[in-house]
Design a protein that fits this description.
The chain is of the alpha/beta class. The protein is built from 53 helices and 30 strands.
């Protein structure tokens, strides 16, 4: 096989390879001395030639010209050392500036998140503990010391009793000694004034403030649930789930109220800040119980297998790849012991701190409340312990844990909020020291005061305006509002940090740090309370201070309890340091319900952070306890479609593909090196991939002598691609080249296969013959969808059925593989970076319902039309696509750069419907004019989501000419309207079937659709108003007529002239309107200056400009697009009025429109040129005749001689065939007869079909039988070329014209009515002034007013622009999140890419070694060369030619296998620095990981390396 392929491609020898020259007269002798990889002898063997014979010279051309070309390519042309590299593309730059900018953004974001998370957590906890402390201030008249820090908190008598100075009237004036005057002082004795109260007064506002803080999270849950119920598809209400949720939440609320209003007020802030360490009561028990049970079960399984003689792995497998390896039995037991010991010390501290009779009640209530509060987080500590074998018994438990519970959340949390208020009221009523009714009335602000007996003493519950220490009456509510803002900010930013993969630095560290230092902060606050007085208000207890000289011995149990509780909490929540999850994970997959607790905010987020990430999409759960974890790697098929691309466009696409290949190879090599250090390591950005390019009309169908030829030849575009592939690969890989191409004959034409750098990755070009298979882009997509999804997956089915180690059923396995198989649709000229693909995969990983994802498309090219499109594309993506993504989903994922999920394409009513042949006029518009939009429409109807990733950039060439641009939009506009109308008419089904499409989204698109239809009329009115403003002397009716004339001319031309004439008129009118728009701009500026913003038009114009400028600033990488906004403004009439009329008026023309102006070989039927001669006579130019006519045949063009060389005898001209026969009869030697016989065509088979390979198929390989059968069946059923009869063509043409007439009439009428109504209203207002809306400002000497034209324009575009602006802001935040999550600093970079310049030196060393040089000679040569050319390098760029002539580099490239080996060596030689290992390996266990994918399934089938898809037959 290899020898045959080398022979076929022998003409593509290695540059710089030395070959022997043969100068003998015999061609046979030269072929004998040719190297083994030259063409086979029978292909070039020719008989001796006779000089001077024209016939022989023509025959010699068949062999001599071909052999000369082969020898010329194989010669060592030392003088031919100059190189031509592919053109520099926009993505060839490394983008160091933008990369540095993103890294700076990452650092700034990390610092900001850390400060916000830590600051908000710390301040909110301080405020909450102060508010609780206010419920039960310390007493001076009892010996209860629990709320006095074990007695170390002492009253300051000099502040409690102030001396009085009597004035003339005998009034007491307190000597404050620096204390604020606002502090109320009660005269006790004539010479003293008291600042303290024997029975402390507690304002009921503190109770209500704490209730608001406790209830705020549940209000948030209710609002979110209501939003999802109204606009999303949610689960049905289940009574059983409602009852379980209600019991859990009410139990938690009961315990929380007991702790906040009974237990914690009995403590001081320092000791109360230690209590949160022990709300892990139930999670600690569950973690300890199930961890020990699991370890015991694993040991039993291991023992059984060892006794049975089976080999097992000595390592324990965690439940999944992301599970923490710290929660083993020993660590869990240690954490439980520390927790129990710490809690005992806390109880001892409480018991021995006071001799109060309520001390036992405090201990009991503390234990009960801690247990009840801890029940809220039980879900996170039993999830990983549900075994697969107990699925039936735990089915409801699993459903409950995984359910979002939106439908039950609204009633459950509503009841919970009411329950909290009720329990709090009961607590205070029970503690009443007097009438319970008075206490209840005081609680509701219906009574002034009531006496309450707390666990530490009596207080006076006040509902009046008195707040001690100079604070306002609303101070409790102001503190509650501040606390709500801080807690919500902390809640959002902490979860945001986990989503952007900053969990350790911006989530774990600040929360743990906050928990550890909060008690120390309160020690400082209680030691220096007066220092925290602001505006005469002190919210602490300023009459008390900590005295460390007394009663310190009572505090040490509290210190021990705090340390042990903190350590046990860190052990229990150690998963937060490693369970990071993938970037851009959904919050629902990172945290469990409830979202957070208003009192124990930090602890609630730690305990609700999932220990194990929900397993679906890419990462799946383990199979059994003794087997490695599984990771399903994506399989991405890069599917590009080509037709008439230029060399620059082809090179741009190929560069992108080879850059991806280089990136993935680096990642794979790096992953192998890292897995040697940490077996569980895997790079989530690695994916298997394969490149497929589908080339339409790739062959030259020619007719010679009026007779069809059997030989087939590829056209010049395919030859250009075949040249571009190795040349572009070399520019990316360096001094390494691709292996020779392998060519296969296929039922649809031909296939070229190149092996790429990444192992088992191929670049496959499918050459389509339109005589064998349908052409155009949609049918190419049908080809690769069926081939890559159904054929490839079905091919692995026998292997999957024979495997016994799967823990899932066959449908589940196929579903997982199809969900992880993706099709990246590409155009033949697209340019992108590897990061763009991984960013699209992130969206797929984030949500399994995403069926397609598109990136940001940037048009490139030159000229004013491209400049216009730059701004148009920018505005479309900034506003329209972003808004669609936010409020629903994107309607169109463009086929030039979009990622489609395999399972969504294979869904019912998607792929099968996509193969439907258009038979009606509407179908021709919807199906073939915008195939990518129609495919997305099918996906949306079946419930899949289409998303937009603004961080994924792709560049594509845009039309540079006015005609080409109009033709392109002539296809797009009707298709867009047809697909949107299809969704809107079927809105009930779409809304019911698709979770992402709500009624709000439907209304938005109805509004957008109507405004699009009225756009021509709106622009018409705008221009008419501008004419009136610029030329006040022109009457409105005249302005209407002047504006109507060019539009009428274009409309008439649409129906009576050809398309080119219409385009010429559209160009002329567009130029005129551009000048008018300049007048409009001047008029707007003039009106703005005169009115000083007292004009609706001026305000709206400034608003639009402000939106665009704001959008440009928040898109810094695309900011330069804003400079093309002026051109966009000038082209508004052309693109928003004339283009719409032209598109609708020519919607019956279903030709492609673009690239058709280029000469195509397949569309040119090349006959032998003929010339006629004779005597002519004429009468001017009216009549001409020719007499004595004779025909003269011209020789065949030179470019056709190559095809004639390989033509069969029956395809050659008759004269040439006879002459060649004569030569053979006279010159052929007898011994050469067998050779000539080998060249004879094969006999026809039984079916009568000639199977002899001719033309470019002559040396092609055969396709595997199973693949050949597949293609034959696919072509027969879906892709067989359609031969439309003339009558059918006429019928379709008439239907298209009728449809055009209907649509055009409808659009024309509604715009005409719209213009007429507004014009009439304007005229009525001009004569009567009754329709004006006056404004409270003046325009010069006149009062400002709103006119109908201004209202029409503002209402049409203003509301949509406001919606799109806020949608853009929201989406931009999401994009920023995605960028930050994908950015890594140097110490976080998982993929190391050493400098490949060493590979060039290695290539030089290899060449010199082959030439017999020693190592010493090589080093001496290197030093001399570097010295010799050092001066040249310092002055000018040393070109390849100079470096080759000097001997510094060799022209001979190396194979890609050597580059892959070099990569591995470079990564192995450069180890990972020790300080970086922790950042890289922290979240990966040292457990082997099994990576599954579609390709690996194929590897298990022992697929041959020669050809993708071959089977071991």
């Amino acid at each position: 096989m290899e020898e045959t392929e080398d022979g076929v491609n022998g003409q593509q020898s290695l540059p710089g390879q030395v070959r022997l020259q043969t100068h003998g007269p015999s061609v046979q002798s030269s072929l004998t001395m040719s190297p083994p990889d030259s063409e086979p002898a029978q292909e070039n063997t020719n008989p001796p030639k006779r000089k001077g014979n024209a016939v022989n010279n023509q025959k010699i051309g068949k062999g001599k010209k071909k052999s000369d070309r082969n020898k010329q390519s194989e010669e060592n042309l030392d003088w031919d050392c100059a190189e031509e590299k592919p053109m520099h593309g926009a993505n060839d730059d490394e983008g160091t500036c933008w990369s540095s900018f993103t890294k700076v953004g990452l650092v700034v974001s990390a610092i900001f998140l850390f400060i916000v998370v830590f600051g908000c957590a710390c301040l909110s906890r301080i405020i909450i503990h102060i508010m609780i402390w206010k419920l039960n201030p310390p007493f001076t008249n009892n010996n209860f010391t629990v709320n006095k820090l074990g007695g170390t908190l002492k009253p300051q008598l000099d502040r409690m009793r102030l001396k009085c100075e009597l004035d003339v009237s005998g009034n007491c004036t307190a000597v404050r000694n620096g204390l604020p005057e606002s502090w109320a002082c009660v005269v006790d004795l004539p010479d003293q004034c008291l600042l303290f109260e024997a029975t402390p007064s507690v304002n009921v506002g503190w109770v209500w403030s704490l209730l608001l803080v406790m209830s705020a999270p549940y209000f948030y849950v209710i609002l979110v649930s209501l939003w999802r119920i109204c606009f999303k598809k949610v689960e049905q209400f289940e009574p059983k789930m409602f009852l379980v949720s209600l019991v859990v939440e009410l139990t938690h609320s009961t315990g929380l109220c007991m702790m906040v209003f009974l237990v914690m007020p009995a403590f001081d802030p320092v000791s109360a800040s230690i209590l949160p360490f022990f709300i892990c009561f139930l999670p600690t028990i569950l973690s300890l119980k199930f961890q020990v049970k699991r370890d015991i079960d694993n040991k039993v399984i291991k023992t059984r297998k060892e006794n049975g003689g089976r080999t097992v792995n000595n390592q324990k497998s965690p439940p999944s790849t992301n599970e923490v390896d710290y929660s083993n039995m020993e660590v869990s037991i240690l954490g439980g012991i520390l927790f129990l010991t710490g809690f005992i010390f806390l109880c001892l501290y409480v018991y021995f701190s006071s001799e109060n009779k309520h001390i036992i009640a405090i201990l009991v209530l503390m234990i009960i409340s801690v247990l009840l509060v801890s029940l809220s987080w039980w879900e996170n500590f039993v999830t990983s312990n549900i075994k697969p074998k107990s699925e039936q018994s735990n089915s409801f438990l699993k459903t409950y844990i995984k359910s979002k519970r939106e439908t039950v959340s609204v009633p459950v949390y509503s009841i919970k909020i009411a329950w909290q208020f009720l329990v709090t009221l009961i607590i205070y009523v029970i503690q009443s020291d007097g009438s319970t009714l008075d206490t209840a009335r005081t609680f509701f602000y219906l009574e002034d005061s009531a006496n309450v007996r707390t666990l530490s003493g009596n207080i006076s519950l006040e509902s009046g305006s008195y707040i001690p220490y100079g604070c306002w009456t609303l101070n409790p509510y102001m503190m509650a509002l501040t606390c709500l803002i801080l807690t919500f900010a902390f809640f959002k930013t902490s979860r945001y940090a986990c989503r952007v993969v900053l969990q350790r630095k911006c989530f774990a560290v600040p929360i743990v740090l906050n928990l550890s230092i909060t008690p120390l902060i309160f020690v400082i606050l209680m030691k220096y309370p007066l220092a925290f007085t602001a505006a005469g208000c002190n919210v602490l207890q300023p009459l008390w201070e900590i005295d460390f000289d007394s009663s310190v011995e009572r505090v040490w149990p509290l210190i021990v309890a705090g340390i042990l509780g903190f350590v046990s909490m860190v052990i229990l929540t150690s998963y937060i340091w490693s369970t990071g999850g993938s970037k851009m994970e959904k919050v629902e997959r990172l945290f469990r319900k409830p979202p957070y607790c208003g009192i124990f905010l930090d602890m609630s987020l730690l305990l609700s952070r999932k220990r194990i990430i929900d397993s679906y999409d890419f990462i799946t759960e383990r199979k059994t306890d003794d087997k490695p974890s599984e990771v399903y790697s994506p399989m991405v098929y890069f599917c590009a479609t080509m037709w008439h691309e230029t060399e620059n466009e082809m090179t741009q696409l190929l560069k992108s593909l080879f850059r991806v290949d280089m990136d993935q190879c680096w990642r794979r090599q790096d992953q192998e090196v890292k897995q040697a250090q940490r077996r569980g390591y895997f790079d989530e950005d690695i994916y298997d991939f394969e490149v497929h390019i589908f080339f339409d009309d790739a062959f030259k169908p020619r007719i010679l002598n009026g007779k069809p030829r059997k030989s087939r030849f590829v056209n010049e575009y395919v030859k250009l691609l075949e040249e571009c592939v190795p040349k572009t690969a070399k520019s990316i890989y360096g001094d390494y080249e691709l292996e020779p191409v392998k060519k296969y004959e296929t039922p649809y034409g031909m296939k070229y296969v190149w092996n790429m750098l990444t192992d088992k990755t191929k670049l496959i070009v499918h050459l389509k013959d339109k005589q064998k298979i349908r052409h155009r882009k949609r049918w190419s997509q049908v080809m690769y969808m069926y081939y890559l999804l159904t054929f490839e997956l079905n091919k692995h089915k026998p292997n999957l059925e024979n495997r016994n180690d799967w823990s899932k059923s066959m449908p589940e396995i196929v579903q997982i593989l199809s969900q992880n198989t993706f099709l990246l649709a590409l155009d033949g000229d697209v340019d992108f970076k590897p990061e763009a693909v991984t960013l699209l995969l992130d969206l797929m990983r984030k949500n399994s319902d995403v069926g397609a994802a598109c990136g940001r498309i940037h048009p490139i090219g030159s000229g004013p039309m491209v400049w216009y499109q730059k701004f148009e594309y920018a505005v479309s993506h900034w506003l329209q696509k972003a808004t669609e993504h936010v409020i629903g989903c994107v309607l169109c994922s463009p086929g030039c750069f979009s990622l489609f999920r395999g399972s969504s394409v294979l869904a019912d009513n998607v792929l099968k419907t996509y193969t439907r042949q258009a038979t009606e006029a509407e179908q021709h518009i919807q199906y073939d004019q915008g195939e990518d939009r129609w495919l997305c429409t099918l996906m949306l109807k079946e419930g899949f989501r289409v998303e937009y990733c603004a961080a994924s950039d792709a560049l594509t060439f845009a039309p540079e000419g006015f005609f080409e641009f109009y033709k392109q939009r002539r296809r797009w506009a009707p298709s867009t309207m047809a697909n949107i109308l299809d969704l809107l008419l079927d809105w009930k089904y779409v809304k019911k079937n698709n979770d992402s499409i709500s009624m709000l989204y439907i209304i938005y698109h109805i509004f957008l659709f109507v405004s699009s239809l009225l756009t021509p009329g709106t622009i018409f009115l705008l221009i008419m108003g501008a004419i009136i403003t610029a030329f006040p002397t022109i009457e409105p009716w005249l302005a209407l007529v002047l504006n109507m004339l060019p539009v009428a001319v274009l409309i008439v031309s649409i129906f009576v002239t050809k398309e080119d004439t219409q385009l010429m008129l559209a160009g002329i009118i567009s130029t005129i309107y551009s000048l008018v728009m300049m007048v409009v701009l001047i008029g707007l500026v003039k009106e703005g200056v005169d009115s000083q913003f007292c004009s609706v038009t001026t305000v709206f114009f400034c608003f639009v400009a402000g939106v665009f400028i704001t959008a440009a600033f928040i898109h810094p990488q695309e900011f330069t697009c804003i400079f093309h906004g002026l051109l966009y403004f000038l082209a508004v009439p052309s693109m928003s009025m004339l283009l719409i009329l032209y598109s609708i008026g020519n919607m019956h023309n279903i030709n492609w429109g673009t690239r058709e102006n280029k000469a195509t070989a397949q569309d040119m039927v090349v006959n032998r040129k003929r010339r006629f001669e004779g005597q002519t006579c004429s009468i001017g130019e009216w009549c001409r005749c020719m007499l004595c006519v004779r025909e003269i045949e011209e020789p065949t063009p030179i470019e056709d001689t190559e095809d004639l060389e390989n033509a069969s005898d029956d395809e050659k001209p008759q004269g040439q065939l006879n002459k060649e026969d004569d030569v053979q009869k006279t010159s052929t030697l007898p011994e050469e007869t067998p050779v000539m016989g080998a060249n004879k065509p094969a006999k026809p088979n039984a079916g009568g079909k000639d199977k002899t390979k001719r033309g470019d198929f002559k040396n092609s390989l055969d396709l595997p039988e199973d693949e050949r059968v597949f293609w034959a069946g696919l072509i027969k059923k879906y892709l067989k070329p359609v031969d439309i009869k003339p009558a059918e063509k006429e019928r379709i043409g008439k239907e298209l014209e009728e449809l055009r007439n209907k649509v055009f009439f409808f659009v024309f009428i509604i715009n005409a009515l719209f213009v007429t109504i507004v014009y009439v209203l304007t005229q009525v207002n001009a004569y009567q002034g009754t329709l004006e809306i006056p404004l409270p400002c003046n325009v010069g000497d006149k009062q400002g007013k709103i006119e109908p034209i201004s209202i029409a324009f503002t209402l049409t575009f203003g509301i949509l622009l406001v919606i799109q602006f806020f949608g853009m802001i929201y989406h931009r935040v999401s994009t920023f999140t995605h960028i930050i999550a994908s950015t890594r600093l140097d110490n976080q970079v998982h993929i190391r890419r050493p400098n490949l310049k060493e590979a060039e030196s290695a290539a030089l060393a290899s060449d010199q070694t082959e030439n017999g040089k020693s190592n010493n000679e090589m080093s001496s040569h290197d030093s001399k060369t570097n010295t010799r050319w050092n001066k040249v390098r310092s002055g000018v760029y040393a070109s390849t030619a100079i470096r080759t002539i000097s001997g510094e580099i060799k022209k001979r490239p190396q194979k890609l296998k050597k580059l892959r080996t070099k990569m591995t060596e470079m990564l192995t030689v450069e180890p990972i620095p020790e300080e970086y290992k922790d950042d890289i390996f922290k979240k990966y266990p040292d457990i082997p990981v099994t990576i599954q994918s579609v390709r690996r399934m194929g590897d298990l089938n022992n697929v041959g390396d020669d050809m993708p898809g071959t089977s071991k037959a």
